[in-house]
Amino acid sequence: MKTHNLMKKTLLAVVICALAFVTFAQEKDIKGQLDKPLTSPIPMDPNVRVGKLENGLTYYIRKNDKPEDKIEFRLAVNAGSILENEDQKGLAHFVEHMAFNGSKNFQKNELVNYLQSIGVEFGADLNAYTSFDETVYMLPIPTGDPEVLDQGLKVLEDWAGGLEFSPEEIDKERGVVIEEWRLGQGADQRMRDKWFPIMFKDSRYAERLPIGEKEIIENADYETIKSFYKTWYRPNLMAIVAVGDLDPDAMEKEIKTRFGKLKNPKKPQERKVFDVPSHEDTYVAIEQDKEASFTMVRVVYKMDDEDGSKELKDLRKSLTYSLFNNMINQRLNELRQSATPPFVFGSTGYGSLVRTKNNYSSFAMVGEDGIMNGLEALVTENERVKRFGFTEGELKRAKARLLNSLEQEMKEQDKTESGRLAMEYVNSFLETDPIISPYFTYEFAKKQFESIKVAEINAYAPKWIKDSDRVVVITGPERDNPDVTKESVLATLKDVGSMELEPYADEMSDSELLAEKPKKGSVASEKVIENVDITELTLSNGVKVVLKATDYKNDEILMSASSDGGHSLYDDDNYENATYSSSIVSESGVADFSKTDLDKLFAGKTVRVSPFVGTYSEGFSGSAAPKDLETMMQMIYLYFTSPRKDAASFESFKTRNTMLYGNLMSNPAYYFQNEMIKILSQYNKRVGFPTAEELAKIDLDKSFAIYKERFADPANFTFFFVGNFKVEEIKPLLETYLASIPSVKREETWKDLGIRPPKGKYTKVINKGTDPKSQVSINYKGEADYSKEENYILSSLGEVVTNRLIDLIREEKSGVYGVGANGYISERPYENYTFSISFPCGPENMEELKQAVYDEIELIKKEGVTEEDLKEIKESQKINRKESLKENRYWLNSLSSYYSYNRDLADFYEYEKLIEELKPKDLQEAAKKYLVKGNLIEIVLMPEE
Q1: Phi, psi at residue 724, to the nearest 5°?
Q2: Which domains does the chain have, with CATH numbers?
Q3: What is the pTM of this model?
Q4: Is the pLDDT assigned to residue 27 strictly greater than 90?
């Protein structure tokens, strides 16, 4: 068992019984488990049913109510690309594709078409992945109709043992898989193909990347493809997971009946587990590519996986690993925020490498000229921990952070999405990790933290940081770096080992965030809007507050705020100062607290507040646990009244962003995106990725002054709070921290900057890159009168076009891996519409596929869309809407939009009416109205000639 994974997965995946509803018997049982010796087994979460059929198939069943009326199915196969023969490289992944192209109960494309008809979106919902060691299929099914559930189980049956592999469908799918392979080509792939054999030297992992080899994908014979499925898709290597709105007894019976019939081969091939050999020397890989965007430094220390025990001592050990990772990364983050940061960002930690190997690794993104400096910084901090360890203060804060995370998971046990739970059980099957109740994990951590001392954690570094099994990988743009050689890398590693170092100085202010509460204001007026169940307050200083109390999450309150203006109010000479003003203040902190101070001060709290200055507005985004709501309010107050101007943080911000964007345009994909944005704005200077020259223009004093100006008048702001609070209990906090902010009550609005797309028909071919890759972007843009009805129809047209193009240019023509279309009408800065279609493809197919798209658009204009087309998108829209209405984030964004554009909340639930009333003719008329050649902007990426 990978004990490091145990904690990671426990933190990421939770189970259902909310603390408030855990029975006395369960609490007593868990407390009894806590008192057992550490050699005792880790108790299984009682809320999940785990079983194994006689044929070896494992199943996991869990009743869960979020979201309602849905079951998340998974089929996990403990077989991936690592098991391929020499003539099968890429065929594990190919088999995954064939699961959607014909089976016993669903011929050819019937599966995708059927699932779309019940509201399951291909790609977004229905999906799968193949990795080195496993293949996993994901299938969400609505539960309102027993026939739909029956069909969903048939899909799983077919995946597990009923794929057809017709020669016709295999040959059609080759092109789709090649297009997915093509997407992965580029600088990162070319460099990876060179350093992977060094990282995994003499290991099968070095030569079994899941995407495989193009020649094999194109030419493998039918039986060779099918043989992988016959050999490895067998019940003793499979698990079925069912989580959601289900009857566990009935589901268990279905699984036994349907999957108990599967048989293992009479002479099954051994499912081997492959190792990565150890080595005494340090391996060094230095790879460059002229199209690389970023410069990366990795230092990896490989070590054997730990034993397979599943005892309480393993859970305790995983807690200590998490504490170590937390503390070292806090140090790196502090270093990143220094005036002369050695990297854009960096991370270090103990974790999994592959099934049989763990690793302690350090990673950093650095500037092109900062490779050796970044490498030295990483290994120096590792060496500092190795020699001096961590401090008591660091450990205390790390415990507070980890315990806070575990407490949050525990509180959300009954509000966790079924999809997350399903993947937790998939991982349990593949990694043979126990499934642990978040309640037990939290209580166990509280108990164990009393005995976990800093010396225990400090003992790990000398074991992990060693000269053997070490690999250094450096990747980046092609340039003359005479100082970066294997010899200089090894010399740096050696020099740091003998360098004079000082212990880490753990400095922390004892001050409170806000020593004195401000003088309270008051609520000047209040009204309730009943149809959406919100309370609207106007405070005594003019601030408007919109409150929606929900029970969708137990430990979550979301916040946003906005005021009209943004950087549109500043001329081009001050554009950089205005647009980066909020980021500079955010990096600096508030009052007397730096960002590092705040990170330490908030250890054990769940709170985040971020100011922003956008094009047409400024404001805040944030979140907090209910217990930390007052801290969030205090941060908002201080961002208004005491923003911090810090020269060191400012220099750090500029340096890191210069490193980040320095070589971005060498990458064809980023270059194309940047050029496309500029073309669509007619090369307005305010759009596109920033350049080093633009970043150099930022002036701290001017930027800080703009920030203060944008946040000078709270009366212009509307705040939104959505989550688990009571209106009467939040009011005193609003009066104390928002109503008390001084107001100047000025009148402001945003300014139209005149940014417009080119008029008429515009075409542009951009030649960039050496790989045989193209990208097509088709954009219809023009002026249009906004209405919610027209916006909905145009958006729905995008969904229909997406589905039809998937059928046409992916499934029929095998020319793309993915394609998407979307449409909408905007009101700001002027009323206009956009309808975009984009897809990547091979350059040799670009003209044919592009013409096929235009032909399909003309067909829709001429013949309209079918009732089946409409049914597919309507079912999906209904499901998405139903689930969204139980999400805090959806309500926060929706309310913010309604208020920002002065829309009538009485219409909020008319979306359901729009769905019911949508007719095929509406979409046909929209296509005729908006998809016109006179408003067409076509931009295509092609390789360099």
Answers
A1: -90, 85
A2: 56-259 (3.30.830.10), 283-413+433-497 (3.30.830.10), 523-737 (3.30.830.10), 762-942 (3.30.830.10)
A3: 0.94
A4: no
